[in-house]
TrEMBL record, chain A:
Protein name, as recorded: ATP-binding protein of ABC transporter system
UniProt signal peptide: none
PANTHER family registered for this protein in UniProt: ABC TRANSPORTER RELATED, IMPORT ATP-BINDING PROTEIN
Record-linked InterPro entries: AAA+_ATPase, ABC_transporter-like_ATP-bd, ABC_transporter-like_CS, ABC_transpr_LolD-like, MacB-like_ATP-bd, P-loop_NTPase
Region (Disordered): 1-38
Family matches, as CDD domains: ABC_MJ0796_LolCDE_FtsE
Species this chain originates from: Bifidobacterium oedipodis
GO terms under cellular component: membrane protein complex; plasma membrane
GO molecular function: ATP binding; ATP hydrolysis activity; transmembrane transporter activity
Automatic annotation (TrEMBL), chain B:
Membrane topology per record: Multi-pass membrane protein
Record's keyword terms, sorted: Cell membrane, Membrane, Transmembrane, Transmembrane helix
Record localization: Cell membrane
GO CC term, one of those recorded: plasma membrane
Entry's transmembrane regions: 21-48, 90-114, 150-173, 185-212, 233-254, 260-284, 314-338, 358-376, 418-438, 444-468
ABC3 transporter permease C-terminal domain segment(s): 97-213
Pfam families for this protein: FtsX
Source organism (scientific name): Bifidobacterium oedipodis
Name of the featured protein: ABC transporter permease
Amino acid sequence: MFGNPQSSQTSRSPQAAQPAQPTQLVQPAQPAHYTGTAAPRPILAATDLVMDYTANMPRAQAGHAPVGTIYPGHTLALNHVNFQLAEGETVAVMGPSGSGKSTLLHALAGIIRPTSGTVTFRGTDVTHMSDADRTKLRRSAFGFVFQSGQLLPELPAIENIALPMMLSGADYRQATDVAVLWLERLGLRALAAQRPGEMSGGQMQRIAIARALAMRPAVVFADEPTGALDQTTGREVMSMLIDVARGNGAAVVVVTHDPNVAAFCSRTVTMQDGVLQ
Amino acid sequence: MSTFALWRLFHRPGTRGNAGHTSVLAIIAFAAATAIFLTVLGGVHGFIWRASADHTIGCLFEPAQCAPGTYALWAKRLADANDPAMYASMYVMLAAFACILLVVPFVALAGSAARLAASRRDQRLAALRLAGATQSQVVKLTALEAAGQALIGALIGIVGYLALMPLIMLLNFQNQHFTFEQLWVGPWALIVVLLAVTILALVSALLTLRRVAITPLGVTSRQAQPLPAGSRALLFVGVLLVAIAGLSNLQLFAGLGTAVIYGIIFAFIALPFALVNLIGAWTVSTRAKSRARRPKDAATMIAMRRILDNPKRAWRNVSGIALAVFIAGITSVCGMFGDSVAGADANGIDPNMLMLRDIGTGGLLTLVFAAVLAAVSSGVMQAGSVYDQVNEYRMLVLEGTDTATLNKARFIEVLTPLNVVVVVAGACSMLLMFPLMAQDMTHPITLLSFFGGVALCYALVAVGALASNRVAASLNLMDYRADD
């Protein structure tokens, strides 16, 4: 049920039958791009996405216009964006500050509901799901790695990794057993009992990656995952993220400013003023 | 820039955010504490009014200070064995005792409100330090804010005291209802309470800030703290056994006079209660540690780890309930006597029985006040922790955690220490009362009164938890603009 790293590899990816060792996690000279020539089946697709943060603001609520009305004359956070993500594909979303990268990631992950347009995950329209269903979807099918602060400060590393599994109904023993395997696989066994406040930024991000992948998600969303790290540590963390995600057959969407981070992905797209270029 | 100018900068309309919410919570807490304290003080004033020949405090202690002719009449009443006036001074003492008892939850509530005022501002204060504000300016700013909230809360509390007065007038003590004149503490007492609450908040805020060093980089990252030592439990058990032994052998003190014996009984009962605070954090952390070993679900795991992160905070959240349960245990026996005279003709009641009934009623009233103070304190702390954890909540919700799990975690975080408190304080009070009133302990009315009091505590804390859930529901965890 959960992402036992070994069982997931044997079932999904013969090449990763052996757990990836930390020493193997190096930056690829030529990133292993997604090379499918035939049109890949999209796991996640966004069609004509528009996000206008002012649409639900007081002007609309005051009755001057229906909620969701898009007002002309200002920049949309997402301006009629179309995006597709194939199974196992890794995509970097780049762009300057305020270009709409994180908004796109949040819309794709079902965190926010776009003003208009649709997001489908394996053919199911995410935008029209109830909040509860979107919450379940995020928990079961998606993994998240943020820049920082996603680990609960009171929980030791092992329980931080076990948490999503327990939220999905696993008992403590089962969840922590899987968490230990992840820690061992990522060479972080020594951190099992440590709390986030006792770890370095790089160690915290590695734990966050283990947590994101422990549920064997179909897609991992990473928002500036190396933004708070130095270049060397950032490279190691990114390498680990891509490697482990590939080992588990998960697709990855990474939002970043950093071309070095984007280089780890098989495809890079650029956002500018809410438009995907 | 002066501290006042800084304060004004943060108090322009629309600049408050979550700080505004916490201010409202702190003000509510101060208002509740002040209203209840003034109500109890009004009760003390009422009993003094009744116990004094000319209704003044001076006359109560020194007959020579009484208005001419009043003491002679009063002395005649005191001589009448059927007049409840003979116990009027005892009522003053008991009311003052109740007032002192309530100081504990009152200070706890005022302290938690001041901490709320101070500690939720870590981020903003750190930013201020980064911008060049001195440590002294930051401390003054926060203390000023806490004091301001306390002042506003105390003013609202005075209105609450006046609003509660008609309800208190319905109560029957010494076979008569209170009047406005009896319950009105006077303008000077109001001013003193107003100033005392403000100063208390100021001191609490300064003490809190002394522990939280606000550097330009914010508060230091959280690391595991050493848990309270078990030696405290040994000390507590030792004192409890000595108290039980003392209460079981009161005949040893027979030659010391009635007043001394009452004093000894009071000391033997009060001392273990005072020490409950000593072992509170230890018992809570021990319980949390045992549950954290194999939590049954994610909510329990989060809750236990949060308790273990700061057992003192967990204990503080419910420490007021310890007093309420303790009072429930002590007064439940008196309630039984009260019930036995309830049906009697008012004119024919023996003053001794009347006093026992009134002790029962007073104890129940103290219990309700203590429970309300504790519930408000616990609710304020829970609501404060919602704001405190808003970033972590947001991350968890983004990752697919449903808010029900988070609400449940917060509730368990309060419920676990609450259960510990009820067991420890309840058992402690029962053990202490056992040598004195063993035969009445198992009486259905005693048990009903005790468990009724405990149920009231649970109900009020549950209301506090529900209020904090409302606060959590009002947070915008999802629909906020992403940092693109």
